[in-house]
Amino acid sequence: MAAPVDTTTVFLPDTLKGKVAFVTGGGSGICKGIAEALLKHGAKVVIASRSLDRVTKAAEEMAKSTGGECFAVSADVRKPEDVEKAVAQAVEKFGGIDILVNGAAGNFLVPAENMSYNAFRTVIEIDLIGTFNVSKACFPHLKKSKGTILNISATLHYNGTPLQSHASSAKAGVDTLTKVFALEWGPYGIRVNSIAPGPISETAGIERLLPKEYAKGYIRAVPLQRLGSIRDIEHMAVFLASPSGNWISGSNFVVDGGSWLTGNSFQYPDSIERMRKMAKL
Ligand code: HXC
Ligand code: NAP
């Protein structure tokens, strides 16, 4: 089994010195891990989500664990006025933005025929419209810094994932924004890429989508025979945000132990009926 490695053994600790990052969804899960990795590598980091309490606690914890500077702001990425305000706070605090990580997202399992109109719209608004809103608000600062955007995508839409029509559609849209922003903003020196994690253990995403009793069967469909760790995603984020990524733009990086090759993680080898059972629907 291929074990995850410690980020600090891979990149130099001052790789991102002098950079400022703005990370949505940075108070929990994968994007908290990314925020911490950026801090460990010398960046100053602003984390944003709806719950000021959550991001404030996370910022204090990560400043302590890394010795870096982490600042918390609250914003609902669906609301442009919230986003503009949070970006202005970040720029006032640290003087600019070099790295934007669009990680805020929502997801839950529900068959399309039972999904309310508002449920579908909610996930599209958080994942897709939120990515547009935050990217647009950060654009003037990224243009100034010749910065970079990392969109946190998924592999759900490669084949379409049952019970996740909202999130699959939203992430397909996010991948399209990655390409269009890369085309439009490349001439300003802004690089735009996305990372598509596979199922990552100890995250809200996996707790919502893969009940523990099904994990073992699921892992059989991952060529590397394990779930991912938050650390696995951090490596890719540091790589892309650093000068190693200087000529990479408009690309999507799948970090999933090879599971996208088995068709679709959540379909293979389960039938939709089994998935309904798993989700108790
Ligand atoms: C059916 C549901 C539902 C559920 C909410 N809704 N949860 N429908 N099953 N489990 C419906 C509600 O009834 C409502 O529709 C609409 O969705 C909006 O719900 P609210 O609770 O009002 O929305 P809001 O407070 O804005 O919260 C957003 C949320 C919530 C997405 C619903 O779960 C959330 O805050 N999530 C953030 C954390 C999260 O989801 N993390 C996982 C990311 S993982 P009606 O019609 O009743 O008004 C991820 C993994 C991807 O993205 C890939 C993994 C491999
Ligand atoms: P998570 O911990 O639930 O992270 C989602 C974050 O988004 C939360 O911190 C939440 O904070 C924030 N958020 C939700 N709605 C928001 C809104 N409207 N405005 C601002 N912030 C909002 O989930 P995770 O599992 O680590 O997922 C992180 C990212 O990885 C997501 O983009 C997800 O799609 C992607 N991903 C995850 C997996 C996985 O296996 N976990 C796999 C593939 C892709 P608040 O509640 O405080 O707002």
UniProtKB/TrEMBL annotation:
It comes from the Eukaryota. It is an enzyme of class 1 (oxidoreductase). GO terms for biological process: fatty acid catabolic process. One of its GO terms (molecular function) is 2,4-dienoyl-CoA reductase (NADPH) activity. The keyword NADP applies. Keywords: NADP, Oxidoreductase. Its EC number is 1.3.1.124. GO terms for cellular component: peroxisome. It catalyses: a (2E,4E)-dienoyl-CoA + NADPH + H(+) = a 4,5-saturated-(3E)-enoyl-CoA + NADP(+); a (2E,4Z)-dienoyl-CoA + NADPH + H(+) = a 4,5-saturated-(3E)-enoyl-CoA + NADP(+). PANTHER family: PEROXISOMAL 2,4-DIENOYL-COA REDUCTASE (PTHR43296), PEROXISOMAL 2,4-DIENOYL-COA REDUCTASE [(3E)-ENOYL-COA-PRODUCING] (PTHR43296:SF2). This is 2,4-dienoyl-CoA reductase [(3E)-enoyl-CoA-producing]. It comes from Basidiobolus meristosporus CBS 931.73.
